[in-house]
């Protein structure tokens, strides 16, 4: 092995607030990335450390010699063996199975054991979870949430026959969720989870775990209702950030969260108040009226916050005259045809 300078003075060590290295990942193929580097070439790897003698968080820079087919995990192992024996990071299977090695590389969630190295890398722990040390995060928030959702199947009806026949169509959504390796990449990428205690949203990873059984047609609807009531699922804004980073390529939004939302609207309709109100308004008036939407969701409580109402009015977000008169647009007829009878209810 070539010798290494763990904190080469020619390589700047960045402060935690310095965002220069947190750019977007390059999205070319693995083969292309491996061809950009030649064996022996030096990689610059900046790792976020949580314990340094000076105190506080810093990014420590390392120079690592490239080896053919090198993954991020190989670079971390090289650093631990040759330059910083106290570097903390997790991995187990080394083959995209256990989900323990997830980190952020150049601002994107990746599996360290699966992601090809880049010439310049910034490696950080996952977001939205407390850091225990360096790249190791505390997963108990996720594990506790999953346990509270009781992601298992309960039967009320006896088996018709055994084994019970299930069609592919019946299992198509649950089977996608079963590919989850609990890596938490999606949880780290979710902007709603990033809001912290402002919402009670369970987050994409616990929802995928729940989807494995809640979308199974054998599960008892009452049991599914109980679980869904704890998810805050309608706080999901369908931004697809979770799907973008899922290493198991699970269509998290379209095949797990949206089907779960549909189930929640049916089994726990009070959770979907906002969605039903929005659909009802669009069906009747052919447009979204934020004023009416706020009134329908919050009721007269909304009028208590006069300052907010004035701010929305000043910005042109609400128009009380149109709301009071229920003015329709030319699209109202078509909207009613499309949403018609189902408007405003599950
Ligand atoms: S689609 Fe929903 S769960 Fe996924 S990242 Fe966006 S808000 Fe989070
Ligand atoms: S859904 Fe995908 S990103 Fe989220 S925990 Fe499972 S495998 Fe990881
Ligand atoms: S080490 Fe198991 S998924 Fe990466």
Topology:
Elements: H1 30-35, E1 42-49, E2 58-65, H2 72-82, E3 102-105, E4 108-111, E5 120-124, E6 131-133, E7 136-137, H3 140-148, H4 168-177, H5 185-189, H6 204-214, H7 221-228, H8 241-245, H9 252-267, H10 273-285, H11 290-298, H12 306-314, H13 320-325, H14 332-339
Parallel strand pairs: 1-5
Antiparallel strand pairs: 1-2, 3-4, 3-5, 6-7
The structure holds iron/sulfur cluster (2 copies) and FE2/S2 (inorganic) cluster.
Walk me through the structure.
With 346 residues, the protein is α+β, with helices and mostly antiparallel strands. The chain has three domains: 30-137, Beta-grasp domain (Ubiquitin-like (UB roll)), CATH 3.10.20; 140-267, Fumarate Reductase Iron-sulfur Protein, Chain B, domain 2, CATH 1.10.1060; 272-342, no CATH class. Helices cover 36% and strands 10% of the residues. The chain is built from 14 helices and seven strands. It has a five-stranded mixed beta sheet with strand order 2-1-5-3-4. Strand 3 and strand 4 form a beta hairpin. The longest helix is centred in the C-terminal third of the chain and has 16 residues, at 252-267. The protein starts with 29 loop residues before the first helix and ends in a 7-residue tail after the last helix. Residues 1-26 have low confidence and may be disordered. FE2/S2 (inorganic) cluster (FES) is lined by residues 91-94, 96-101, 111, 113.
């Amino acid at each position: 092995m070539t010798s290494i300078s763990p904190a080469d003075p020619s390589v700047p060590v960045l402060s935690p607030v310095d965002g220069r290295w947190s750019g977007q990942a390059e999205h070319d193929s693995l083969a292309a990335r491996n061809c950009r580097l030649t064996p022996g070439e030096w990689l610059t790897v900046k790792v976020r450390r949580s314990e340094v003698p000076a105190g506080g968080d810093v990014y420590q820079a390392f120079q690592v010699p490239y080896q053919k087919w090198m993954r991020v995990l190989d670079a971390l192992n090289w650093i631990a063996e040759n330059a910083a024996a106290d570097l903390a990071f997790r991995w187990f299977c080394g083959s995209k199975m256990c989900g323990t090695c997830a980190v952020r590389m150049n601002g994107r969630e990746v599996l360290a054991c699966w992601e090809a190295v880049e010439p310049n890398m910034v490696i950080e722990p996952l977001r939205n979870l407390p850091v225990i040390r360096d790249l190791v995060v505390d997963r108990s928030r996720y594990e506790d949430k999953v346990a509270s959702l009781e992601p298992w199947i309960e039967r009320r009806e006896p088996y018709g026959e055994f084994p019970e026949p299930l069609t592919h169509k019946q299992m198509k959504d649950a089977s996608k969720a079963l590919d989850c390796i609990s890596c938490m990449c999606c949880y780290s990428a979710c902007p709603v989870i990033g809001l912290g205690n402002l919402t009670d949203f369970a987050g994409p990873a616990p929802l995928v775990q729940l989807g494995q059984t809640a979308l199974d047609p054998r599960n008892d609807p009452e049991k599914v209702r109980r679980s869904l009531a704890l998810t805050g699922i309608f706080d999901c804004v369908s931004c697809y950030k979770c799907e973008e980073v899922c290493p198991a390529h699970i269509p998290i939004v379209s095949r797990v969260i949206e089907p779960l939302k549909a189930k929640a609207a049916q089994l726990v309709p009070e959770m979907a108040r906002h969605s039903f109100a929005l659909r009802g308004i669009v069906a009747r008036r052919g447009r979204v009226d934020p004023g009416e939407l706020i009134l329908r969701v919050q009721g007269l409580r909304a009028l208590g916050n006069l300052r907010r109402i004035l701010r929305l009015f000043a910005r042109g977000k609400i128009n009380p005259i149109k709301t009071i008169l229920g003015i329709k647009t030319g699209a109202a007829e078509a909207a009613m045809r499309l949403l018609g009878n189902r408007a405003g209810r599950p």
